[in-house]
Amino acid sequence: MCIRDSPPPGQGPPPPAPGQAPPAPGHAQPSPAPGQVPGPGWSGTGPTPPAREAVGHTGHVQLPPGGPVPLPAPPAEPGTGGATLAVLLIGPAGAGKTTVAKLWAARRRVPTAHVSLDDVREWVRSGFADPQAGWNDHSEAQYRLARRTCGFAARNFLANGISCILDDAVFPDRPVVGLGGWKRHVGPGLLPVVLLPGLEIVLERNAARSGNRRLSDEEVARIHGRMAGWYGSGLPIIDNSTYDVETTARVLDDVLARSIASPPAW
């Protein structure tokens, strides 16, 4: 008697499609994993194609939820050390906010990001509402949108263990362009510091600017005068009139360390 190795009729693998080579003897034919969509041309008789995402998946990385930023714990070493911080550097045009913020972020020994509100506002190319052309509902809406975007970025940086320093010309007497919005979007752990050199220094630095970042002398003087309202506010103020960028960044780190130990009321 001849014993057949093949299974009874109707229980074996389906015959190969026309023009397709039969599978090798004993070769298992796996099915796609649950939720996996087989690639084009897969007939169920050949090896499972490389995994690809199920229909409807976009491949976006899931970010952790960005909750309000709490106050950091005091560092165990001079300066801010390895503390994870959310910092808001305030000052008039020409104070050196962006330059100082970039250097401070670059010199820290822990991951630190820099986000400039002016840079984010200028992501809008067609239809950019330039405040120099006059502050109106359109420019205010774009400012609020940019501030929310910066706040979202800061929360997600911190949720992933990356400190963040933001810079903005926040006015003490203007609720729209004020600290309240930053506190709502970032959280109570945000540490504000004011960078306020003398008027002659601000005018000199503004004169070296170009494009829409350069303001008229009259506008610079007006903004600088309004920034003087931060004196007596309780926020730490750095007069960097006689400091170079590196010295200012070092002073900023010392001021932030004191703010962590004794947070300003704002």
List keywords for this structure.
266 residues; alpha/beta; five-stranded parallel β-sheet; 5 strands; 9% strand; disordered N terminus
Outline of the structure:
The chain is of the alpha/beta class and 266 residues long.
Share of helix, binned = 25-40%
SSE pattern, N- to C-terminal:
EHEHHEHEHHEH
> What would you call the structural class?
alpha/beta
Q: Kindly provide the radius of gyration, computed on alpha-carbon positions and rounded to a whole number of angstroms.
A: 30 Å
* Principal-axes shape call: globular
Strand order of the largest sheet: 2-3-1-4-5
What characterizes the major β-sheet? 5 strands, parallel
Mean pLDDT: 78
Task: Please mark out the parts with pLDDT under 50 across 5 or more consecutive residues, or reply none.
Answer: 1-7, 31-59
* Oligomer type: single chain
* Percentage beta strand: 5-15%
Q: Number of helix segments?
A: 7
What does this molecule look like?
This protein is α/β, with parallel strands linked by helices and 266 residues long. The protein is 32% helix and 9% strand. It is built from seven helices and five strands. A five-stranded parallel β-sheet has the order 2-3-1-4-5, with helices on both faces. The model is unreliable at 1-7 and 31-59 (pLDDT under 50).
